[in-house]
Request: fold
Amino acid sequence: MPGRTWELCLLLLLGLGLGSQEALPPPCESEIYCHGELLHQVQMAKLYQDDKQFVDMPLSVAPEQVLQTFTELSRDHNHSIPREQLQAFVHEHFQAKGQELQPWTPADWKDSPQFLQKISDAKLRAWAGQLHQLWKKLGKKMKPEVLSHPERFSLIYSEHPFIVPGGRFVEFYYWDSYWVMEGLLLSEMAETVKGMLQNFLDLVKIYGHVPNGGRVYYLQRSQPPLLTLMMDCYLTHTNDTAFLQENIETLALELDFWTKNRTVSVSLEGNNYLLNRYYVPYGGPRPESYSKDAELADTLPEGDREALWAELKAGAESGWDFSSRWLIGGPNPNSLSGIRTSKLVPVDLNAFLCQAEELMSNFYSRLGNNSQATKYRMLREQRLAALNAVLWDKETGAWFDYDLENKKKNREFYPSNLTPLWAGCLSDPGVADKALKYLEDNRILTYQYGIPTSLQKTGQQWDFPNAWAPLQDLVIRGLAKTPLRGAQEVAFQLAQNWIRTNFDVYSQKSAMYEKYDVSNGGQPGGGGEYEVQEGFGWTNGVVLMLLDRYGDRLTSGAQLAFLEPHCLAATLLPNLLLSLLPR
Reply:
């Protein structure tokens, strides 16, 4: 495959244990889709409303030919091609986006999966059936030419078909796919899940990590590491131990990527703790948001621009692109120019890795490899000690991101602050009552349409008033896992709120969205770098999970209004008090 020989070098380095991302050339060498004058001129001309459109367009001819023609054209116009001629050049040398994919109906899709029968409310049951139908709409399969001519596409070839999020996202995404897979397994589509898992495992074998998404311009960064958890969910549904045996070393390789490239040491009270952060050691604008990144960099001195671009990529790696979480402590707390993602030790990332280490220990035990099981058990214990020492705050009852530069916790509210509950990374199971108090102190239970992503209104999409499906899951399942009856009841009420919001919006618009605005009665969300997208993979997955867990109790809202905040508190207080009584 032309232009991808570096992959073999990467595999060799990783195999020798010498892999260091900083020592390698940038993973994407394409002078069309990743960097270079062609990309710069086209994106800065803003030929398309969304920068992502251009870098998703396949080439009509070989890249060498495209670059040669462009170089001559650019030279003739003193490296500033007039917009009209640039449009003509793109039209001649590129195809429309989406040409490399074809619709795909999963072979294991069936009409009436069992979980639908658990839903008592007839309207919710019918709605769940419609969401189950959406898997067919979101199914994609790559055309053979992506394999035979990979150099003509930004799409990374994957052998197995997959489910996409929807809207502008016509390729797969890493952490989205976990909640998609949970929904697919409820839909009894284990073969589809196995294929998607195999795609990710193949990417780890080639690149050493799972990229942010299925495009070459995403290769420089990953996303929240949930591959081990995906494998665990698949095993729970299938008991396919042979598949685990085949791929256990690949799962270990992915966790090694985070250890080698994303570890940071935190010194606290004379002790050193190893934790992880999001960190992308590459500058340059993100190709899919090129003009925005370039224009933002123009507001800074030239010497600060590469660092800004690296921090933006780290923010994208976090999945929270973008949020006040990454602006805290910067020179301008409301501007992306002050983003400092890599300077924070995030609660959620470390909880995900703690969970993955526990799962790896269990996997190796299951396969009879006791030495590796012990290794991962010890890694989890070390991380748990670090989480407790650096991120946990017993007075507040939550974990907080740690600011490496200012040596203090970021005490703003984010649902991610409770991720260790969800991940089961606790040294004391009695923290549930503290977590409940944390939610009450921040008045989170007064939001009737969903848990807000933050309490700060910055205009970024991972801030107030937006609410996102995976963050609802982190809090709801985190509380539901605790032994505290009051916490379990709050989890149910939060699930009821989210289900009604999603159901009401679907009833009005016949669509599911990637995010929702919880400030105005529950509407599609907004803010950020692009318009709110329909689809939507992880939103559908979380709804199906909640309907499966609480289907005998949830209502569509036709006969019940939302509880007013003081009514909600009154409803929960007796349960909370009861749960705190000694037994």
